[in-house]
């Protein structure tokens, strides 16, 4: 049970309560602080660290590979796709400006897409559609984004050309999240870990929030719970687990950049002489539609196989570590930033590019208030 002191200092007179301390929750808190310098802002996080995607991701500072954007153009209008990419791009600039490139270790190495030998149809379609996609993106980037490039990394089992995107970069995810947390503390934002919001009810003077048995009142309640927001959104957000592995340091590793395969279903990058490699969710969509963390043999074995056969075919490596994170997906790629009831709001469904879009969505969520 909380003490008198704890209740007095942390849970009384709360103006804004944010659920979730991921990228979105922390950006929302910082934006609220800009708008309301004297308000009491509380962030509740159920993990000992942020426990969703923000500290688990691959750190791509990206806005979509050619095959992904081409795919999106089949299910979204050109305007929708451009708007989404515009937001990701603007979000990346906001993140870099807020925290600084040195702090987040931003590296503008560029991004590449590889096409597996058995995906000739996808490869040819992308090469054919590249000029069109470049035209769609021109209002934003003023120049071609995607270009063909010969593989200089000695990958195996792929088609001749890679697609290069010079606007893509990479960051150190751990540095970014630590910097955001520091910034939040410095701005007098109260962050409480190991606190799970179990229920909430609108009342005349705000929202009653339950942490199990304990309840308190906040004027406004903002959910930034992404992959854990199914109930809140009537299943418009579904959890999507993503598994990752990282190698031990590899001497003379020559691979630099962020790399995409198969419409973003596989992704790898260099980090501190290691390769971080994730994906293969498409091998088991059903099993990976879960909010439970964990690694499975089918996916981990496929990641290792691709690493051995395609990415590092002539290099010895050992796997140092494996983990997973939970993303929030849905039928539409657009995040949901909405007022749910009188004093309750949400900013969720960040998909696979929340590093880029998270800062913008956090700000938009805060601006709903
Ligand atoms: C393996 C992996 C790789 C990825 N790679 C990239 C990448 O390279 N580039 C990119 O742009 N994006 C990437 N993403 C996606 C990106 O990480 C996410 O889109 C982004 O982190 C979402 O941020 P968020 O704040 O919305 O959600 P989260 O970071 O998931 O934060 C939600 C928080 O809410 C908390 N929470 C949930 N329910 C409750 C509750 N009831 N009470 C209290 N707290 C609660 C959770 O514990 C969690 O910390 C990747 C994701 C994964 C999993």
Question: What does this 3D model show about the protein?
Answer:
With 369 residues, the protein is an alpha/beta fold. Helices cover 34% and strands 27% of the residues. The protein has ten helices and 18 strands. The protein has helices at residues 4-10, 23-35, 66-75, 78-99, 101-104, 120-141, 173-186, 285-288, 297-311, 354-368; strands at 14-19, 41-44, 60-61, 111-114, 147-150, 161-165, 169-170, 190-192, 199-203, 206-211, 214-223, 238-247, 258-261, 266-271, 274-279, 319-329, 336-341, 344-348. A hairpin with a 2-residue loop joins strand 14 (266-271) and strand 15 (274-279). The longest helix is centred in the N-terminal third of the chain and has 22 residues, at 78-99. 44% of the residues are buried. The mean pLDDT is 96. The structure holds flavin-adenine dinucleotide. Residues 19-25, 44-47, 50-54, 56-60, 62, 196-197, 224-228, 242, 244, 278, 325, 327, 350, 352-356, 358 line the site of flavin-adenine dinucleotide.
Bound small-molecule species = flavin-adenine dinucleotide
Give the percentage of residues in beta strands. 25-35%
Rg on CA atoms, Å? 21 Å
What is the end-to-end distance? 31 Å
Number of helical runs? 10
Say what oligomer this is: single chain
Based on CA inertia axes, which overall geometry fits?
Answer: globular
SS-based class: alpha/beta
List low-pLDDT spans: none
Secondary structure: number of strands: 18
State the order of secondary-structure elements, H for helix, E for strand: HEHEEHHHEHEEEHEEEEEEEEHHEEEH
Main β-sheet, in a few words? 8 strands, mixed
Query: In which range does the helix fraction lie?
Result: 25-40%
């Amino acid at each position: 049970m909380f003490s008198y002191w704890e209740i007095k200092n942390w849970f009384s007179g709360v103006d804004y309560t944010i659920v979730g301390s991921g990228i979105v929750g922390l950006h929302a808190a910082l934006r609220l602080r800009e708008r309301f310098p004297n308000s009491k802002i509380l962030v509740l996080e159920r993990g000992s660290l942020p426990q969703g995607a923000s500290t688990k991701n691959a750190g791509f500072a990206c806005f979509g590979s050619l095959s992904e954007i081409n795919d999106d153009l089949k299910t979204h209008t050109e305007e929708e796709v451009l708007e989404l990419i515009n937001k990701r791009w603007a979000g990346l600039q906001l993140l870099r400006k807020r925290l600084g490139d040195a702090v987040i270790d931003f590296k503008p190495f560029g991004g590449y897409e590889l096409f597996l030998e058995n995906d000739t149809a996808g490869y040819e379609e992308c090469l054919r559609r590249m000029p069109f996609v470049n035209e769609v993106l021109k209002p934003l980037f003023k120049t071609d984004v995607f270009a063909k490039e010969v593989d200089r990394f000695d990958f195996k089992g792929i088609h001749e050309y890679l697609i290069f995107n010079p606007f893509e970069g990479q960051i150190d995810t751990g540095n970014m999240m630590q910097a955001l947390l520091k910034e939040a503390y410095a701005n007098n934002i109260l962050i409480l870990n190991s606190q799970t919001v179990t229920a909430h009810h609108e009342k005349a003077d705000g929202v009653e929030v339950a942490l199990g048995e304990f309840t308190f009142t906040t004027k406004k309640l903002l959910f930034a719970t992404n992959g854990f927001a199914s109930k809140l959104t009537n299943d418009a957000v579904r959890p999507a687990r993503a598994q990752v592995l990282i190698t031990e340091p590899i001497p003379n590793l020559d691979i630099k950049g962020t790399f995409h395969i198969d419409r973003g279903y596989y992704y790898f990058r260099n980090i501190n002489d290691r390769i971080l490699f994730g994906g293969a969710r498409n091998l088991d969509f059903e099993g990976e539609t879960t909010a439970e963390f964990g690694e499975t043999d089918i996916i981990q074995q496929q990641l290792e196989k691709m690493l051995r056969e395609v990415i590092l075919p002539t290099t010895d490596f050992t796997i140092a570590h494996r983990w997973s994170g939970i993303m929030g997906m849905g039928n539409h790629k657009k995040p949901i930033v909405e007022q749910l009831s009188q004093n309750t709001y949400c900013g969720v469904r960040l998909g696979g590019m929340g590093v880029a879009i998270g800062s913008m969505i956090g700000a938009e969520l805060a601006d709903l208030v």
